[in-house]
Amino acid sequence: MVLFMKLFRHLLDGQSVDTPTTMLSRLLKEHQAKQNERKELQEKRRREAIAAATCLTEALVDHLNVGVAQAYVNQRKLDHEVKTLQVQASQFSKQTAQWISMVEGFNQALKEIGDVENWARSIEMDMRTIATALEYVHKGQLQSACS
Fold first, then answer.
1. pLDDT per residue as tens digits for the range 36-61
2. pLDDT tens-digit profile of 101-147?
3. Looking at residue 1, what DSSP letter applies?
4. The whole model's pTM is what?
5. Crossing angle, helix 2-13 and helix 20-146, to 10 degrees?
6. Which residues contact 83 (CB under 8 A, 6 or more apart)?
7. Backbone φ/ψ region at 19: left (φ over 0), alpha (ψ -120 to 50), beta
8. What is the DSSP string of 39-56?
């Protein structure tokens, strides 16, 4: 059908008519030339697609690397902060232990003061009892001496 259309077109254009073999040979060459052009175009598009995919991949990797690098920097900062916090917590724990020891010592001193105060009261009561007894004895001696 295609061969017939080409033959008819040649006749209308006033060109000489080739033999079927010549025409077939020419059509085959044209077909091969077009096919080669398509292959070259397809190969060119394939190379362009590969280049575009490579650029996209590099851009994505670069973008991810920036994020990974930032995450690494943040992790290092966090590690440093954790170490600092651990040191400070240890120092605070030691300071708290010292404060607790001081408060316990203060409480003990207060207890001792309370004990001394009770002892002093006890001594004072004993002294009053002795003083009262001595007064009583003294008054009794005075009364017996007078009588």
1. 999 999 999 999 999 999 999 999 99
2. 999 998 888 788 878 788 888 899 999 999 998 888 888 877 777 76
3. -
4. 0.44
5. 120
6. none
7. beta
8. HHHHHHHHHHHHHHHHHH
